[in-house]
Amino acid sequence: MRVKLCALLAVATTLGLATPPAAAEGRVILKVAIVQQIDSMNPFLAVFQSSTEVGRLMYDYLTAYAADDQRVTEGIANRWEPSADKLTWTFTVPEGKKWSDGQPITAQDVAFTYNLMLTNEVARTANGSFVTNFSSVTAPDDRTVVIRTKAPQVTMLALDVPIVPKHVWEKVTNIKDYANDQMPVVGSGPFVLTEHVAGQFIKLKANKSYWRGAPKYDELHFVYFQNSDAAVQALAKGEVDLVNRMAPAQFDSLKDKPGVTRNKAQGRRFVELLINPGAQTRAGEPIGDGNPALKDVRVRRAIAQAIDLDALVQRVSLGYAEKGAGLVPPVFGKWHWQPGESELRKFDPAAANAALDAAGYPRKADGTRFSLRLTGRAGRAYDEQASEYLKRQLGDVGIALDVRLVSDNQLNEATTVATYDLAFSGWATNVDPDFILGLHTCAQRPGADGKGGTTDAYFCDQTYDELYARQLSEFDEGKRVELVKQMQARFYDQVPAVVLAYENALEAYRSDHFARFTTQPAQGGVIMAQNGMWGYYGAEPAARAATSGSTWVGFAVVAAAVSSLLLAIVVYTRRRKATAGERE
Amino acid sequence: MRRGVRLWGRLGGAALSLVMVAVLGFFLFRVVPGDPVVSMTRGRPTTAAMQAELRAQFGLDRPLHEQFFSYFTSLLRGDLGTSFTFRRPVADVILERLGPTLLLVGTSTVIAVGLGLWLGVRAAWRRDSAFDKATTGVSLTLWAVPTFWLGMLLMMATGELFPSRGMRDTDTAPDFVSQALDVGHHLVLPSLTLVAVVCAEYMLVMRSSLLEEMHAPYLTTARAKGLRDDLVRRRHAVPNAVLPAITLVFLRFGLVVAGAITTETVFSWPGLGLLFYDALTGPDYFLLQGLLVVTAGAVVVMNLLAELLYGVLDPRVKVV
Questions:
Q1: ipTM of this model?
Q2: Could you say which of B34, B96, B166 has the minimum Cβ distance to residue A223?
Q3: Does the record's keyword annotation contain rRNA processing (chain A) (predicted)?
């Protein structure tokens, strides 16, 4: 009796699990793999890249960056005008744009958002730096926003702040505890958030009344992966349609996969090697324990010259990167700087050796001059592999490297309080170079306790700071570009860090489900992690999105086989047991 | 009377352990390197003033003893604080991950315990038989295999039969039956991985403790009474041999709440193990403290239950 019951149960379970779930009929869904957690859906609190990326789909900013060339283009506002003294900016919010609940988008919404940030410190958590220079924001009528700044600010068209609907957010009493989960969440972007299950997925629906026109498909789902290997496998199986942040080896593994198209794009990220230039606090007191030899710019230059950047690109990044130079990656062509023939530091161990001799660091009996710690992150493939190359290359010029691969937190701590000689670091840059350049001004260095700073490399250089201040108030773009390039040249010459490589963004998508995506910029650009939402917004479904039922059939067959095997075992053991008495 | 005193002693001991855990948790995670505010703002345009505001918001600017006092008093009120990362009450964040973890680790622990004990009894009863050698060999091998690797291998070997991530598909119909089937479908691979890896533990413990009983005189007596071999095993040998396994099972049930970090990572299962991992990268102090209190609490409670249960299972053990 029990045997039969077991058998019945097994079969029922198998059949149950093998019934295909009632799949969404007739809706076209784009499924995107994300590997980073979502911290918050509240746009004033969300700081993770994944969250801001979803935020861009829900809320337009005051202005946007065009898909094809990243120039400033229409966002919520379609016209803008600075006053003669550059202290007052007037933005025009055109008529006809609507929130997803049908209410009109007006200048009041914009003024409400910025004023909330100016008056409520919690609302400044994520994007506060964009409004620190604002003295007032007003909306004299529904179409006009007037922003007054304390000092001229050149980045007024690069305010990456989601504008929220006043009629929803004025009822929010406590920004800090507001999860923004009143589904569907009222927004102005091409998609509307409809469901978010923490650690599992995010669902958005196309905003049919989006002012640029509705997206060409119905729903956009982000599904969460904890490890990128599983995400790549899921793409290969067709469970997701789009994956980014792939490692070179993962990217190569999809090379000949039918139905999959890869996108090797110029990324916004670069990796760098920090060289502790004798770190000091904001007040000029020494901090940390960097090797004093590195205070000598000749030593830092020699180190840079001893590193073979081409080899790193070819062997560590497997060719999926470009050789490093200035602080702004080549994807932002206008601001990117490459050293001229006279400035270029070619890979030249002999010259580096000579320079170190001249700087007063002769080789000792064991062939070394001095030793340095190289701190990197354990588990990050780039650090693990590049540190081996650096060890060899710097060994050739008599610098012994003590490689220390540590946890992410330990690495952050070491670079924050300057307890490093050499360390790996990296940044993602924005369309406007102000952020990445600002990291290297003297004012960004921390206080005496090592806190309150955002410096990247403990760089402090008067020439650089002067150039920084000038570019920040230079409204002639041609002249500003020139200043920005001079700053990068100065940084390159003083080497508080060596930009090792501009990493490619490696992405892949199911071209049998989605025919094309809009990249930013148009040539060699990315689909995900854009300065905008074009990649998701412009996705075009393939003529006939394939539906697969085969997985369930296969699963059913295997499950049936397994349960019959189990059944056979149970029956066999029972029968043996029944006769056990006789056999003994 | 003495029973009552002993019971209160046990309960008091358990409560004391919980307090120790809470205190330890606070200081332990403060030693973890990393500055939550720096991690929170890394890679974004930030000013020193904004960092100071954040520090004040989370009370990180106050002296350590004040932070500890406010943490401990709110803990007594049942308030675990607010997560830095998720900006929500820690209790909420933990609760929403508790279900998936209990489902995955609970299911696989039950299967692993049942299968392991069953195999252990069989293997010991027919010591050195082909069955014994095969089960011991296979389960030891699986135990030695890295969980991460086994999970990935299963994922690849089963091809498109099972989903590679998470607990649910995003486009499953919202009705209960479809959702339940979908969860079941997603549950297969991660629980298979867990069962394969931990089953050996129960099997080996059960096997060795039964082997110790094998030549006990009372078994000969039982046989002499004319009992069938099957009954000798079930009614006489196993009840005497099962105690060490029970201890292990209860310890394990306590650890169910802690989740299974590697398995959850491989299959992106939205459980507590994953949450722990994410919280460490902050470090998200309040979330870490909350997780420690909850997971350690589960172990303490389960241990208490196990001790109480001994007395019931084996009258020789006078625990209470």
A1: 0.84
A2: B166
A3: no
